Structures are given as structure tokens and as C-alpha cells.
Amino acid sequence: MPSIRAVALLDHCRKALSQQLYGMNNERSRKGCYGEFSPMLESTAKRDSRISGNENLPERSEELRQQPKSDLVLFVKPSPCNNSEHPLEFTYVFSYFVRPQGKFDPEDYALYVQPVASFNSVEQFWNTYCFLKRPADITEKVDFHMFKEGIKPVWEDDANRKGGKWILRLKKGLSSRIWENLILAMIGEQFLVGEEICGAVCSIRNQEDIVSLWNRTADNLATTNRIRDTLRRVLNLPPNTILEYKRHDDCLKDQSSYRHTNVDLPRR
């Protein structure tokens, strides 16, 4: 589990970044200037980091700034944590999926997942995250992923096959803040369920955005309910917010992530 100091640093950096991302007087920083070669990465035009303290990781910043436009994406591996960094409990990987044109078989999903970068410290997270687009700024259909290293963001992965996911449907424009709070809660080990959490997905769609949190064991009702309750707390969801759950074996049966879900009605 990350130290109390590391969790405090995560929160401090989140507040500092959010002030720039969502501040009313910083329209240019909030909207950003994005490149064409990847739906997840910001362009080299945004060269200045949104937070202080990234001078500890200049090589990572330079790798992300100089993504070649001829390639879709360059995967950036994590560097070993130095003494000044705050290590995380797990290494995580950012990736994304864009549905190919033409006929598409959901079983081929993994073939089109593009990894972007991995990280294993608080500092590496922020030095990667500040170069990624925010979900609310995306207009095309894209899935963003953040999963533990070694776990693919697909139903049939060994870590996911017997699990499922909590699903939250959002009105357009709300996904950036929810996504940020969710992944911060994950890397800050706020769910307190050991290795049960696999990863998270933010799906950008035409009429709504959908955020989901994946766990290993759908049959463990106590654990899935604890994840649900923590999810409501860390996302500061209104009491009447509806969450849904779907097992991944059901996803494999109907080849769908978000149809035929089990609705978890809010308690009165």
C-alpha cells in the first residue's frame, strides 16, 4: 500500500492540476491543443507541464513530447523508482481502443488495444497523465484503459474472466472529473480489497460516456459490494445515482459490455 505521504502527494497534485484544468480563468489550459496521431495523447504544442515537480523525470517527458506522427503511439515503459519518488503498490498501464472501420468482431478487441505508457510511482503517474487528453475533450468513439500491468483490458483475460465490472453512465461533459477521481482512487489503494481490482475503462460514446471498474471475482458478493460502496464515496456520487454490474462471463455470452446489466438501485 502506498505510504500516507504518497497518498497525500497524489491528492496535492490532483488539486494543483485540477485548478489548471478546470479553472474558469484558464480556458487555454482547459481546452488544450491536441495532436492528430493518437486519440489519447496531447500534441507537442502543449510542452509545459501542468504541475510542478516533474523535473525528476525529464526523460519520460521528452519521450512523450516527441511522439513520432508517423507512428500511432510509442509505448513508454516505467523507469525504476529513485529515492525521491513515491512508489505505488502496482505498476499500471494506460492504453486505448478505437473501433476499426468496417466489420469488427468483438473477439478481436485485444488486437486493436494500443498501449501508451506504464508507471509505478506517483511522480511517473503525473508526468504521464499531464500529457493525456481528457475524456470530455474526445469527440470520437474511444475506450480509455488503466489496468494493472499484466492484465489485458479484455473479458477473456485470466484475471477478468471470472470477474465483472461496476458501470456508471454519465452525461456528456462529466467524464473527465469522474475518470480522474477513479484512477486516483485506484492507484491510491482506496478500495482496500487487495488484488481484487483489475483496472478501469472510460468509454466515450455519442450520447453518453461510461466509466467502469473491473474486479476479479464476481461471485464474491461482499467484495463487489465493498467496491460499489467505495466507488460511490470516492466519486462523491449523489444518493440517487444508479450503478450497474455485469459479469464478464455474461459479456462473453452476449458479446456486449453495457447491455443486459444488473441495475443496483440506490438505497432509500
Descriptive notes:
With 268 residues, this protein is an alpha+beta fold. Strand 5 and strand 6 form a beta hairpin. 35% of the residues are buried. It has an eight-stranded antiparallel β-sheet with strand order 2-1-3-5-6-4-7-8. The longest helix has 19 residues. The chain has a single domain, classed as RNA Cap, Translation Initiation Factor Eif4e. Helix content is 28%, strand content 22%.
CATH T-level fold name? RNA Cap, Translation Initiation Factor Eif4e
The structural class is: alpha+beta
CATH class: Alpha Beta
What integer value in Å does the Rg equal? 18 Å
Topology pattern, helix = H, strand = E:
HHHEEHEEHEEHEHE
Strand order, largest beta sheet: 2-1-3-5-6-4-7-8
Q: How much of the residues is beta strand, in percent? A: 15-25%
Taking the sheet with the most strands, its summary is: 8 strands, antiparallel
**Silhouette:** globular
Write down the domain tally: 1
Query: How helical, in percent, are the residues?
Result: 25-40%
CATH architecture: 2-Layer Sandwich
Query: Can you count the helices?
Result: 7
- Mean pLDDT score: 79
At the fourth level of CATH, the homologous superfamily is RNA Cap, Translation Initiation Factor Eif4e
| Annotation, overall tally of beta strands | 8
Distance between the termini: 34 Å
Which spans have pLDDT < 50 for at least 5 consecutive residues? 16-37, 43-57, 67-73
